[in-house]
Amino acid sequence: MAPPSRDTPRRAFGPWRCSPATVLVFCVGCSHHNARLKLADLPDWDWYDISAHLNCTACGKVGWVDTGLDWSEVIDFAKGVFG
Questions:
Q1: Total domains, the chain
Q2: Strands of 34-38's sheet, edge to edge?
Q3: What pLDDT, in 10s, does the model give residues 48-65?
Q4: Any residues with CB less than 8 A from the CB of 52 and at least 6 apart, and which?
Q5: Which domain range does residue 48 map to?
Q6: Which of 61, 10, 73 is nearest to 37 (CA)?
Q7: For residues 56 and 45, what is the distance between their CA atoms, to the nearest angstrom?
């Protein structure tokens, strides 16, 4: 059986390695489980492939994560968007 085709564009972490330096990971199964991971520690795979291989260390679910870049390293939210 052939693997399913991708409906979304392939995105690798490569272009974002400079900033921000971490990614936020939230467990979809349990809303209170979350972590920060360094991008330098992750393989240079597609965004979706990395998310599919991550597992929640609290509940053990594999691939049940939502990842996003940690923009708090780049934007000073205390100053506001236009500050």
A1: 1
A2: 34-38, 22-27, 65-69
A3: 888 888 888 888 888 778
A4: 63
A5: 17-73
A6: 73
A7: 19
